[in-house]
Amino acid sequence: MKEFRSDISGFYKLSFEERQQKISKIVNLNQEEIKVLQNLGYFTTTQIDTLIENVIGSYQLPFGLAFNFKINNKDYIIPMVIEEPSVVAAASNAAKFARKHGGFHSENVKSVMISQIQITQLDDVEIAKRSILENKDQILKIANEQDPFLNELGGGAFDFEIRELDTRKGKMLILHLLVDVLDAMGANVVNTMAEAVSPCIEELSEGKIYLRIVSNLASHRIAKSRATFDKDLLGGDQVVEGILNAYEFALADPYRATTHNKGIMNGIVALTIATGNDTRAIEAGAHAYAALKGQYSPLTKLQVDSDGNLVGEIEIPLALGIIGGMTKIHPMARLALKILNVKSANELSQVAAALGLAQNVAALRALASEGIQKGHMNLHSRNIAKLAGVPDELIEKVARKLVEDKKIRVDYAREILQRIENEKNL
Ligand code: NAD
What we know:
Blueprint: H1 16-26, H2 31-38, H3 45-49, E1 63-71, E2 74-81, H4 87-99, E3 104-106, E4 112-120, H5 125-134, H6 136-145, H7 148-152, E5 156-167, E6 170-180, H8 187-205, E7 208-214, E8 222-229, H9 231-234, H10 237-252, H11 254-274, H12 279-290, E9 300-304, E10 310-317, H13 331-340, H14 345-368, H15 373-387, H16 395-404, H17 410-425
Antiparallel strand pairs: 1-2, 3-8, 4-6, 4-7, 5-6, 8-10, 9-10
Helix pairs in contact: 4-14, 6-8, 10-11, 10-14, 11-12, 11-14, 15-16, 16-17
Bound molecules: nicotinamide-adenine-dinucleotide.
Nicotinamide-adenine-dinucleotide binds next to helix 7 and helix 8.
């Protein structure tokens, strides 16, 4: 047998179809698998082939809708792309609990991104700093020449901050170029600007510049949302007390806070994918922000009002765009933005923050009452049935039995399938 090797050169030079044929041969795909590979869904070959490198197919995920959201007095249907069961239903539920008290109140989010420029090998940090600051207008002018259209629309580089870092390679000056990227996520925009201003800054500072890149800790682009969740709809005083205890647990323990925030990101990332935005940027920013004060902490705050209702708040950096990147290229992302009916990146971030808060409250409610597994397992049972090789037409029947018998396991699904087949053969 031929040795399996991963150093396949020139794969990218092959046509899309040739790549599919080559990989099919290498890993020995059968006819059914080749058919899956060839199904590009709503993408054309040209569209998919130009997005990343070495493309061989397209990958689909469920696209669901969360309902009941009222944010700043406007109703939204929120598109979510996620593989995990229960998340969409949970968000819709929590939104209903908040709706009774007016829904969510989200604040305006300014689309300000930071581009970092790392200045090293400085003889005199103070002189370098002064020289850069004295030429601020010139630096901002060069930055803005890179994207005249953005400038015309009212955005662009408007200021910078300089930080001093003590490192093992000596003192460095880190210049944070601040750019209003309006409706874009902005990474490309600010990277271009940082690269363009670097020669001028190098000359002014007499230092050596290495990195010139966006910071994903978008600390000037913080989204805040707040809502009151009805005590009775949540399940009464006991459930609210359980949620508050869960919150204290997360405040005191990074192990718990990580899972607390993962629940928030279930919602935010699902909307991020649906709208064609960069999930890694959103995740990295959120978790860095959660740890900014020293201890990794929850991104939400929870308390009760004088009537015993739960008041929730969220604060999270959100670099989301409705223009640029994949947002206008991906057919489903375009559709998602249409369903969502948001007119700006600011509005999208306001929705995302509300969704994250709803998701958090929904998860804590389940944990503080019947436990997370009940709701989860109903849907999960279908996946287990599928995994056990149950044919599509019997999935529902087998899944129901798994839940009924409280044995949501692959081996038990196989046992039930066997029983059904035996009955048929009688
Ligand atoms: P982009 O490069 O497509 O730029 C958006 C362009 O749209 C701007 O040049 C602007 O002139 C134009 N525009 C038109 N109308 C606008 C409006 N109303 N508001 C703002 N801009 C408007 O997109 P981007 O947002 O700069 O970059 C996003 C992409 O960069 C994502 O795909 C992301 O994955 C990728 N990226 C991320 C990182 C990172 O996060 N570290 C690094 C590099 C690239």
